[in-house]
């Protein structure tokens, strides 16, 4: 079974997505997600200019060999662009292999370890009242675990807080947060860590007071704190029993997590900007985190993320696969097959895509009563409608960035 055709499709139904479509000589097709938020065209070029020509006539069954070939023969290893490109090839090949086997992908990964995949949604509000409404709205949609982000007094736009805006393609009230904005330049937001640290525990106090002790609550620090600030926040949040505190500090310096860990029992989740197992080496071996946050899309695909999660399993560290709207339905479906098969599943992030996206990417995965399931169609269960995709050309869009009160650029 040889790869006969490889196409890179860039489309922007509700937001930009980059998809790789492989077709074999016996007519099977496979899809892989290569979307890198705000830097989409770089991966599209990496694929079209440097990877597609290498794929033609390769044996579509040789997934591990293709992965190693793309990783090692480039010489320039790792990095988000390279690893998103490799991920797209990897997932497309798994999709093809599963279709050839006549099975949903999770069967090839060992079969189901559970009946459904617990998902968490994004609730947010500029005020406590808005936040409560958003949490209730998520519970009504079936979510059984909820991420809580709020405004901070004195700060205007900040990470994670949706303005309940009605956007084109997302009609009606929308409580989910979509950080990238279609504009020629990145939006500027403001930040003050001390105000945030003072305010956040009061928000969790209010949420626990309103919603009780059972509801699993999560929070994303989005890389804003120094290790000692993160330690202080983790400690302050202990009474509210968080499911996890995410990206409490930038983790390029993995050793920084030792300090956080020494001071708090709040569970820690890290990894959405990581690309390979090497980014986790110290974090996993020294048990400095509790959840691996990588996306299939940004971590070299199923092949690499499965290895990371198996390494993590030896240390009782679980999965928390990244699933914001910038992961396409293809990347989400791939994650769901992995979630269903692995033993050390923790939770899956799930933000719903807009209507145009769902019409462009036809999906078999379901969300019922708080649990996701990838469906039982052979492959990963997503097909791309090229006519729909063709209606929405790429639009320039960027993630925002942060400045402190004195104008210093801070971590966003
Ligand atoms: C999350 C993430 C996202 C990212 C976004 C960047 O936890 O879902 O932090 O909100 O900011 O995916 O592309
Ligand atoms: Mg995050």
In words, what does this structure look like?
- The protein has 412 residues and is of the alpha/beta class.
- The protein has 2 domains: 3-103, Enolase-like, domain 1 (2-Layer Sandwich), CATH 3.30.390.10; 117-378, TIM Barrel (Alpha-Beta Barrel).
- 35% of the residues lie in helices and 19% in strands.
- The chain contains 13 helices and 20 strands.
- The protein has an 8-stranded parallel beta barrel with strand order 4-5-8-9-10-11-12-13, surrounded by 4 helices. It has a 3-stranded antiparallel beta sheet with strand order 1-2-3. It has a 3-stranded mixed beta sheet with strand order 7-19-20, with no helix packed on it.
- Strand 1 (3-11) and strand 2 (17-24) form a beta hairpin.
- Helix 1 packs across helix 3 and helix 3 packs across helix 10.
- The longest helix is centred in the N-terminal third of the chain and has 22 residues, at 80-101.
- The chain is globular, with a radius of gyration of 20 Å.
- It starts with a strand and ends with a strand.
- D-gluconic acid is lined by residues 37, 179, 220, 222, 272, 324, 326, 349, 399.
Keyword list:
Enolase-like, domain 1; globular; binds magnesium ion; alpha/beta; TIM Barrel; binds D-gluconic acid; 8-stranded parallel beta barrel; 412 residues; 3-stranded antiparallel beta sheet; 2 domains
